[in-house]
Design brief:
Length: 142
């Protein structure tokens, strides 16, 4: 994907547990990543500790001025990222369904943060593709 000028970078506040974050309403900006955008790229950069989801606007009837939106997970940790594509998955892969911060098993108890202060974010798409990412923060780049 070609580089582009980032007009605005917004740090999202720590979301409440289990709250779906596919709709972003912050600083007068409303983004509906489920209905108005398709996910066109996933990129994990272990060297920078960054996991990035890039969305392209598909619903031209909205008042949104942002054609590309990146949701960036900061200080991330992913053990494994595996995708298996078939014809049923590829057609529905681009529609994000859920993005939320949740608990995870840590020994014999459920934890909200790991030893480095990261939370576990759960990401799922209509196709059934699911990802889990530990991150300290979320940033939206417009």
């Amino acid at each position: 994907m070609t580089s582009r000028k980032i007009r605005r970078k917004i740090s999202l506040p720590q979301s409440e547990l289990f709250r779906n974050n596919v709709e972003i309403d912050l600083d007068g900006i409303y983004l509906d990543l489920h209905n108005d955008y398709d996910c066109v790229r996933l990129a994990y950069n272990a060297a920078f500790g960054e996991f990035r989801l890039t969305f392209k606007r598909i619903n031209l009837k909205t008042d949104v001025n942002y054609n590309l939106v990146d949701v960036v997970f900061i200080d991330t940790l992913m053990d494994t990222c595996i995708f298996v594509f078939d014809e049923d998955v590829s057609g529905e892969f681009s529609t994000i369904d859920l993005l939320y911060r949740g608990r995870f098993e840590n020994g014999n108890e459920l934890a909200e943060f790991d030893g480095s202060g990261r939370s576990l974010y759960y990401i799922s798409f209509y196709s059934g593709v699911e990802l889990e990412v530990f991150a300290k923060a979320l940033v939206v780049e417009l």
